[in-house]
Design brief:
Blueprint (H helix, E strand, L loop, with lengths): L6 E4 L2 E4 L3 H9 L11 E6 L5 E6 L8 E3 L6 E4 L13 E4 L3 H5 L5 H8 L4 E4 L5
Parallel strand pairs: 4-7
Antiparallel strand pairs: 1-2, 3-4, 3-6, 5-6, 7-8
């Protein structure tokens, strides 16, 4: 693979794609610990009436603002206030596996977020 093939182009930003070995070394330093019980957060959309209820599965950083899981507009955190206590949990914030993290190589900002202890969202696995 040439050096040019390893460059990620994003707008006017050119940055080399991180190697798999580098990702593995950084990932090995992360601590995978369960979150405190009932780490419930709500994200209120700024465009539609949707409120997405989340729970933290692992210790780590979840964002203050994320995209609305319905319309894609910005959705703001309630800072762990359960603003809709009767609503079921929609999403969970978790630390991705090493394989999932390696797949983020083409998304350098998200990869950086995870390698600094950031969590990613997925559908809540407890609503089955």
């Amino acid at each position: 693979m040439s050096k040019q093939d390893r460059v990620e182009i994003g707008g006017n930003n050119r940055r080399p794609m991180e190697s798999q070995r580098s990702i593995q070394r950084k990932y090995a330093k992360l601590k995978l610990e369960p979150a405190e019980p009932n780490q419930i957060n709500c994200y209120a959309c700024t465009s539609c009436p949707e409120i997405t209820k989340t729970i933290d599965i692992h210790k780590g950083t979840s964002p203050f603002v994320t995209s609305c899981f319905v319309c894609g507009a910005p959705a703001r955190s309630s800072f762990y206030n359960d603003t809709v206590p009767d609503q079921a949990i929609d999403m969970e914030w978790h630390m991705p596996t090493l394989n999932e993290t390696v797949k983020l190589r083409k998304h350098p900002d998200m990869l950086d977020h995870v390698l600094r202890g950031g969590l990613v969202a997925r559908l809540y696995s407890g609503n089955k």
